[in-house]
Design a protein that fits this description.
97 residues; mainly alpha; 0% strand; nucleotide-binding; tRNA binding
């Protein structure tokens, strides 16, 4: 009787393992991932609020017909006076430094 029970138990265990393997194989076949697909682009970070505000103001002035110019706000002494050959004693050079 014990031998028969042991034989049946072994058969049931083997069948159960086979069913688990079949279920796993079926699940793996259904859940294949195509690794050749391109990934999704994830936006990282955002613009600083001050930068966004400056851009909004620039857009406003561009819409009004103004032009955005980047450069020095104050020119150097060399370009304002030296290259124009103004002498050191010229009254235009009496600007506070």
């Amino acid at each position: 009787m014990n031998e028969l029970r042991q034989t049946i138990q072994n058969e049931l265990d083997e069948r159960q393992q086979m069913l688990v393997k079949e279920k796993l194989n079926k699940q793996l076949a259904e859940e294949t991932i195509d690794v050749s697909l391109p990934g999704r682009h994830i936006e990282i970070g955002s613009k600083h609020p001050l930068t966004r505000t400056i851009e909004e103001i620039e857009d406003l002035f561009l819409g009004l017909g103004y032009e955005i110019v980047n450069g020095y706000e104050v020119e150097q002494d060399h370009y304002n006076f030296e290259m124009l050959n103004l002498p050191k004693s010229h009254p235009a050079r009496d600007m506070p430094r």
